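This is your field. Have a critical look at the following sequence-structure pair:

***
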Amino acid sequence: MKENKTPWSVYVVYMLVLIFMMVAGTVKGQNICKTDVCVVEFNAGWNKANSVEWLDKLNDCGVQRINIDEGDWRKKYNIVVVPTIIVFNGEEVKRYQADLSFTMGVTRKEVQEEVDEILMEDF
């Protein structure tokens, strides 16, 4: 009776597919946002007084606040002034930066309009 052996090349292909799936999952997992469209405020601990109060009132998007004192956020996202607000849709779409007094000049309405425009592009 002849044994049916699986050729070693089949195992190699399975391993390559498995490695590809793991790498693809890791790259996707590095996204700063848990949702497709999100708004992130980058600020520093010493500048909490100038935090954007209305950020949590935005609709139809994820919201995150990141303290650039912790980790390499400043370098990774090229944050040169705080607070900085970045709108993401998988990648950076729009950036708003504070003025020289470290206060944000953009309004909630302007950021919400950017989010709404991104969402409407999908239709």
